[in-house]
Amino acid sequence: MAKNILQKQDQNFASRSLPVVQRVLHKYPSIALSQPDPAWTSIRQICATQLFAPTKIKSFQPIILEEVRSMLRSIDAEGKQKSCARSKLHAAFSNIISMMPLGKKLQMNESNSTANASSHLTSLLVESIELSSIFYISDWVPWLAWMDLQGCERKSKVLGGKLQKVWTEIIDERRQYRNIVGPERKDTDFLDILISAFEAQDPLLEYEKITPILYDIFAGGTDTSSITVEWALAELISHPSKMKRVQDEIDEVVGNSRLVEQDDVQNIPYFQAVIKETMRLHPVIPFLVPRMAKQECRIEDFDIPANALTFINVWAIGGDENVWENPLDFSPERFLGSDFDIRGRHFELLPFGSGRRVCPGMLLGITNVNLMLACLLQAFHFEPDERLDKIEKFGFVMALANPLLLKASRRIPIHLLE
What we know:
By secondary structure, the protein is mainly α. It contains 15 helices and 10 strands.
C-alpha cells in the first residue's frame, strides 16, 4: 500500500493539508506543508543545491565534528553523575543546524536577541513541535473551529508572534550587514542566498516568506536527529553485547588516535545496521507527514476520494511480523549482508518517506546521526541502567517518554576532545 501511494501514485498524493496550528504559526506554509507548485519546487532546488548537496554537507563536517567534541566534553566521564542525553543532543544539533544556514551557533543568535528568555529560539521550537503534536479536534471537525476547544489556535497566535520576532531580528541583522557591505558583497551562507532569491522576486521583501523555511530546517534537523540518537543509545545500553560489538568494530577500523569521520561509516557495517534497526523499530515520525489525494483514485480494492488525507504508518510496517522476523526485537544483525537502505527505495523501511515529498534534508540528517552516535560509542563506555525503560511517547514525533540518563566512562584519550 505504501509503495502504491508513494511511488505508483506519487504525483496524485503529493499535496498537503495545512493543520490549524501551522496555518496560524506561519503566514506562509513551510516547505514540508506547501503544495507542490512552482514556488515549492524552486525553494526545494535552492535547499538541495545550497544546503543539502553532498559537497555542501562534506564542507560542514569540521563544524559538525567541533560540536560533537563540545558535546562529548560536556559529559561527565567520571561516572559521578548521570547526563541527560536529550538536552545535550538537542543543544549540539541546534548549534550544528544554526551554523549551516546562519553561520552562527544558536546561542550567539539568542544572545543577540532583545527578546526575553522565554522567547529564545530553542524553547520556542520545542514548544511549537509539542503544540503541532496535539490531536487538534478542529482539524477533523472544522465546524467546531470557532470555539478553539483545546486552546491551540490561541497558543499558536502567541507562539507565532514570538517566533516571528526572533526570526525578524536575525534577518534584520543580516540585511543591515548586507547594506553596509554594499554591491561587492557575496552570498556567504544559506541565509544570504535565501534573501537574494526572494529580493530578486520582491524588492519589498516580506520576512514571513523566509521564516517558514528556516523553521523547517531548524525543527526538522534538531528534534528528529536528537531523538534517533537517543533511541539508539537506549537500545544499545539495554543490549550490552551489541554495544560491545559495535564499539569493537569502531576500534578496529578507526582506533583511538582520532575521532570517527563520515568516510569511516562505510567501513563499519554493524554500526550502519544499528542505525537502520533503530529507525525500523523507533521511527521518529511514525506516520510521516500526511499526504492528500489531489484527485479521486483507486488503490487496490479501495476508492479514495479527492482531498482524502493519507497516513503512511511506518511504525506499524516496522513492527509487522509478515514483513520482519521477530519484529519487536532489537536485532541489527538482520541488516548485515542485506541491501536495505533508508533512503526511500525499500518500502519496508521508510524513516524519511519516499517519492517527491521525501525529506529534503535526509542526507544531512543521516550524516549528523552517524557522526554523533559513532563518536559517542567510540568515546564512552555506558553502564546499563536497571531503571531504563523504553516506553514510547506518541505524537507527531515519537520519543522516549522519559529522557535517557547516561552514566559514562571515557574510552579514548581526552586530547581527542580538545
